[in-house]
Write a structure and sequence with these properties.
Distance between the termini: 50 Å
Mean pLDDT: 92
Low-confidence stretches: none
Shape: elongated
Bound molecules: cytidine-5'-monophosphate
Helix content: 25-40%
Number of strands: 19
Structural class: alpha/beta
Largest sheet: 8 strands, mixed
Strand content: 15-25%
Strand order of the largest sheet: 12-11-8-13-16-17-18-19
Number of helices: 15
């Protein structure tokens, strides 16, 4: 049954930082209540062509002008027929007819309805009109039969939505992102690390990829699944990270240093596990190389973006850091708010001054940041 997959899709898209507006046909409302989608997306759900609260009774125009892509999931045989004929007999059909953005449909129906020549004829008209048809898959159906007509899974549809949202802001650029913490070994089993989750760096790598960049992600130890970028290099210590960055930097146009690199490491790692005694134990720490500064001091550095997590005097300390590291752009946040959490509020500091990105999910912030970087990079 495709209806519950649509709810899961709305949840995953929202979690992915996408602002989801839901339009439901009357048939859809028989399967799932609008309140489900309202609570999953945080936005009101539209069901009526004649919404009285829409400006000038133009719900279809207002909606279609404010969206970057439309996905109809599930798309029934009846809806496909109406779309193929350019009907405008409910809000969804009218919205599709009035659109000026990419339209995708995810068919879901009984296998015989799918195979019917009328449906296939309608689908070929839609393909001809440039509408993207996602699926369906083959498998067990709600009616108990087995065959073509199952709606694709939410996670498969998300990939298509991401592709449709590609902006091209960084088309063809090589972007190198560092992410996560580093782990500085003390002995064979212990080490010094920090609570960076890697979420922000991974989100930035994904947003850069969505913007058309070729992305290399150098990641310290995290529990996250990396996005499907061109290359992922896993490292442990700051020194490993420096070596990985140096190997990539000559092919890099934009370097985004998000990693929370340990400032110090133990000079001599004990090859064995240090034995516990009653005596005090001192560790002598030596400074780690500053990876970002090593890159920004190169004779021909890439466009360098730094991050600064501060616990106090955010703007002042961050601007000092930006100048010291010679960065065209520094992203500052309050360490206590950002580290490990799913949301952050960011302050972007560049030569023009400061820009605040109010609290939002890390993927939404990453997309704003990539847009900002592309505007500075082009100048
Ligand atoms: O000086 P601070 O550590 O606060 O600077 C943070 C910025 O510098 C981040 O962009 C971080 O990735 C980078 N950095 C680095 N190498 C270090 C320390 C920080 O690249 N050893």
């Amino acid at each position: 049954m495709a209806a519950y997959k649509a709810a899961e899709l709305a949840r995953l898209l929202t979690q992915d930082g996408i602002d989801v507006q839901t339009v439901m046909t009357q048939s859809a409302c028989h399967f799932v209540g609008p309140v489900t989608f309202q609570s999953l997306t945080g936005n009101p759900v539209h069901t009526d062509l004649w919404e009285t609260n829409a400006a000038n009774n133009m719900a279809h125009i207002n909606l279609s002008r404010n969206v970057d892509a439309i996905l109809v999931a599930p798309a029934s045989a009846d809806f496909i027929a109406r779309l193929a004929n350019g009907r405008a007999d409910d809000l969804l059909a009218t919205l599709c007819l009035a659109r000026n953005c990419p339209l995708m449909i995810a068919p879901a129906m009984n296998r015989q309805m799918w195979e019917n020549p009328a449906t296939q004829r309608n689908l070929s008209l839609l393909r001809h009109d440039g509408i993207k048809i996602l699926g369906p898959a083959s498998g067990e159906q709600a009616c108990g039969e087995i065959g073509m007509g199952r709606m694709l899974e939410a996670c498969e549809l998300i990939e298509a939505v991401r592709a449709a949202l590609q902006t091209g802001w960084l088309q063809g650029k090589n972007v190198l992102v560092t992410a996560g913490p580093t782990f500085e070994a003390i002995d064979a089993v212990r080490g010094i690390t920090n609570s960076s989750s890697g979420k922000m760096g991974y989100a930035i790598a994904l947003a850069a990829m969505e913007a058309g960049a070729k992305v290399t992600l150098v990641s310290g130890p995290t529990c996250l699944m990396p996005p499907a970028v061109d290359k992922v290099i896993r490292v442990v210590s700051a020194n490993d990270m420096l070596i990985a960055v140096q190997a990539e930097i000559s092919q890099t146009d934009i370097f985004i240093s998000v990693a929370a690199v340990a400032d110090y490491r133990v000079e001599k790692i004990n090859p064995q596990k240090i034995k516990k005694t009653d005596a005090r134990l001192s560790l002598e720490l030596i400074p780690n190389p500053d990876i970002l500064m090593t890159v920004s001091n190169l004779p021909r550095p890439p466009f360098c973006v730094g991050f600064a997590a501060e616990t106090e005097d955010l703007e002042k300390n961050a601007e000092i850091k930006r100048r010291k590291k010679k960065l065209p752009l520094l992203v500052a946040n309050l360490a206590q708010d950002a580290i490990g959490s799913d949301e952050s509020e960011l302050m972007l500091l560049d030569d023009a001054g400061k820009h605040i990105l109010p609290k939002a999910s890390k993927i939404a912030q990453a997309r704003h940041l990539i847009k900002h970087i592309s505007s500075l990079y082009k100048q």
